[in-house]
Design brief:
Number of helices: 8
Bound molecules: adenosine-5'-triphosphate, magnesium ion
Helix content: 25-40%
Strand order of the largest sheet: 2-3-1-4-11-5
Low-confidence stretches: none
Number of strands: 15
Length: about 280
Amino acid sequence: MLRLAIQKSGRLSEDSLNLIRECGISFVNSSLKLKTESTNFPLEILYLRDDDIPGYVADGVADIGIVGENVLVEEGKQSLTVEKLGFSKCRLSLAVPKTMEYNSIQDLNGKNIATSYPNLLKAYLQEQGVEADIHTISGSVEIAPSIGLAEAICDIVSSGSTLISNGLKEVERVFKSEAALIANDDLSEEKREILDKLLFRIHAVQRARKKKYILLNAPNESLDEIRALLPSIKSPTILPLAEDGWSSLHSVVNEDDFWEIIEKIKAAGAQGILVIPIEKMII
Ligand code: ATP
Ligand code: MG
């Protein structure tokens, strides 16, 4: 059985659990439990504080884990990374009171900076040739300037609204982060095989998230032009409609190119376009 550590309750929890569920792995999730076993896959889930996950995976208490890269790198455990997972995207940024005049990072020389990420901040300041006092606190970093604890902060930002509501402005981006799957580097062969099976499923889920299934009707004379505009896994499916001279075309498109392609195929004569999410994709 493979042991997976995920965050018990926080910003990574829901997406981590969803990913496992989308991989078809069932388990009973009780907020009171610290450990659950899957009923249909050799996986045990441990629910932990996110800060503890890199250490537990490095020590082999858990075999694999899901954690933010910010925590992973802060703990010096980036070598455990298997792959990025594409959710919980955020950044670690420096922010100062919005009334402070700020021209460049050099303005932070000699200042007091509060953060929960002293190692990441220290490395960044060194790289930038700035000397500042780092004040490590474990939470509520945004209020540090207003209570006189520090002159600047370095904290996790996603939309920036927390900074604004605390009278701060973002001035430098220190580190970009997303959730990552990590693994102990000394897994047994059996556990490695289970991890490979899990990765196979994760890839199928991730691939599907980026794609949409598209169906459309078109007059036969437009089919060549439409086919040229639509990528597909191998080649599109084309079926005749009951009405003479018309066909139905099925294919798969990238979420990112989606709107651009739709406009072009419409202009080429496509009608009744349906776009459907794909749950899993194995190629
Ligand atoms: P724990 O109680 O487990 O120690 P925590 O309070 O340290 O939790 P959370 O705030 O739940 O941590 O954040 C967990 C991770 O989610 C962060 O380390 C970061 O990678 C990511 N994260 C944090 N804030 C955001 C955000 N606003 N948007 C997206 N991802 C975020
Ligand atoms: Mg934490």
